[in-house]
Amino acid sequence: MTLGIISTMLVLTLPNLQMGRDRERLRSQAQILQSDLRQAQARSIAANVQGVDPTNLNVAPVMVQLDQKNNLYRTFKDNNGNGVLDFGEATQTVNLHPKVRFGAFSGPCQSINGTILCTVAFDSLTGQVPAAQSQNFSFELTQNASNPISKTVTVNASGLISLN
């Protein structure tokens, strides 16, 4: 009898525990992205203060590039200020958890060989994002397509990075 009651309780509570774990995983990944964006912003400003490129105060030496197809993002120091990850530029790659996917994007993105890339650049003088690059990013769990859970990380033109 006791075993039957425990079994019934487990059957009823396991889906709730799984949903809680999914929400925590999603929240954690969104907070990591938010933190990495803030770190990139701070590194851009610090590079300007340190005089990385005294001829161009608006160069964005640290950028964040989101890769939807490969479910990862990269932060990199854009040494030549061309806005593209080039050979030899210091890079950090962060792979998202397999159950967390990039969802919808808004803002300037480009498709290269079937891969959607969105790059956020920070002005090294002010830490702001050019108005044309104000971005919204959302994470969606793919395991429950009928009722996805999502978090949105937003970078606006003034450089404010928020999590909703």
Structural description of this entry:
The chain is α+β, with helices and mostly antiparallel strands and 164 residues long. The protein has one domain (2-163): minor pseudopilin epsh fold. Helix content is 29%, strand content 31%. It contains one helix and nine strands. It has one helix spanning 2-49; strands at 62-67, 72-77, 91-95, 100-106, 109-112, 115-121, 135-141, 150-155, 161-163. A five-stranded antiparallel β-sheet has the order 3-2-1-6-5, covered by helices on one side. The chain has a four-stranded antiparallel β-sheet with strand order 4-7-8-9, with helices on one face. Strand 8 (150-155) and strand 9 (161-163) form a beta hairpin. The chain is elongated, with a radius of gyration of 20 Å. 26% of the residues are buried.
Compile the SSE list and pairings:
Layout lengths: L1 H48 L12 E6 L4 E6 L13 E5 L4 E7 L2 E4 L2 E7 L13 E7 L8 E6 L5 E3 L1
Strand elements, count: 9
Average pLDDT level: 75
CATH superfamily: minor pseudopilin epsh domain
**Strands side by side in the biggest sheet:** 3-2-1-6-5
Q: Please mark out the parts with pLDDT under 50 across 5 or more consecutive residues, or reply none.
A: 51-55
Number of helices: 1
Helix and strand succession?
HEEEEEEEEE
Kindly provide the radius of gyration, computed on alpha-carbon positions and rounded to a whole number of angstroms: 20 Å
| Architecture (CATH level 2) name | 3-Layer(bab) Sandwich
CATH class: Alpha Beta
* Percent of residues in β-strands: 25-35%
CATH topology description? minor pseudopilin epsh fold
Reported for the largest beta sheet, the result is: 5 strands, antiparallel
Q: How much helical structure, as a percent, in the residues?
A: 25-40%
The gross shape turns out to be: elongated
Class by SSE composition: alpha+beta
